[in-house]
Amino acid sequence: MALEKHEMLVVDLDGTLLRSDMLHETFWSAFGSDWRIPFSAATSLSAGRAALKRRLAAAAHVDAATLPYDPDVISYIEAWRQTGGRTALVTASDQAVAEAVAGHLGIFDEVHGSDGSVNLKGDRKAGFLQKRFGAQGFAYMGDSAADLPVWSQAAKAITVNAPAALRRKAGKICDNVEHLTTTTTSPLTYGKALRPHQWLKNTLVFLPMLAAHQLDAATFLVAFLAFVSFSLIASSVYVLNDLLDLAADRAHPRKKNRPFAAGSIPIAHGTAMVFGLFLLGMLAAILIGWHFLLVMIGYSLLTTAYSLHLKRRIVIDICVLAGLYTIRIVAGGVATENTLSVWLLAFSIFFFLSLAAVKRQAELVDSARRGKLTTVGRGYHVDDLPMMPMIAIGAGYVAVLVMVLYTSSPAVVDRYARPEALWGVAAVLIYWITRTVMVAHRGQMNDDPVIYAAKDRVSQLCLLLILACVAAGMVS
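Above: the chain sequence. Below: its structure as tokens.
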């Protein structure tokens, strides 16, 4: 890059150097550790956005080393410096955040951010830069309409991933303009953030209908609407979890590629997705009925409590996970007006407690292999690893015992011509539970156990054998 007549390159942080926004980053980081943050943030906002940013920066725990930087922007800055130019990071984010970023990257000669009273954005940033470097005394790299006043005072305007309309406006107010396109966001990326593969868990709403042998079209349609409601609300929770777990995901070798952690989707969009998906899911719940709506409200409250606090409480977390699975079955029974048996509920609690323990076991095995003593965002220590398979095996075998006792109940005799065939289900479950724990022990399970089972050929074969046993029990 040839040295420009202006030697100072001023770079914005949010959306330019960083594929994220530090106001949202600090909010979600602070909220993840203290549920009262929204209330204190609202109080701080009354004193202005700069005061809000100062409050959130003080409460958040953001690791500058793991933030999603734009490598092309960093390369541009480094090339500018190699030609003898100087660089400055000037941002509306709080000064403490700006200094942490600059300290990590080591490519800026100056760092200026909001100071708790002045929000260094738009006209204020333009005035500050003109006073410090002089009119036309700097090149400015930005990404949003808020940067237009700055570009009007700059000798060169550099846009980063700006929409076409903003590029045209920048070209009208500055004679020397350069446009950088370093990334694009596909609709598929937003779809990935919803984690549609996790919707497999929501098929549990069909279980009460199947267990009652109520297979008419009307019942299926109601159950399907319940499935849609659960999927929408569950996706809103997945997005919420991703926002709360940004730091933990970025420290993980696989989860760091999730859309929000990687900066592929703006965090502001994630916030809108949380509320939008939740409202759509609740609308679907209202169409089913008020009793189902109450179940979904309870599910939402429990999942929110889990995301904000309970997931960091040992043992409580896996009990809550088991309960969340069971709530899906309860919701299916409420939606289709099928009375749930004690046998089904007891089996569900123990079976899903086993799977929750396997999930934690897999996380601890992964942490141990990476040399981490704790799982980030969880309350477990690697030394707890021997306990997890014990819980998984114990709860799983109790679930099988419930299944065996169920085969002798009057309900089975009434519904199955050959109830003894259901003993085959118990045998397959013993094998599958034991094998699943062994797979996790060997570090071969990288997904949620339910998702792993959906992809695993042996698990698929086990499911076919279970269906065959159930079918054999129904044939006279």
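The longest strand covers residues 86-94.
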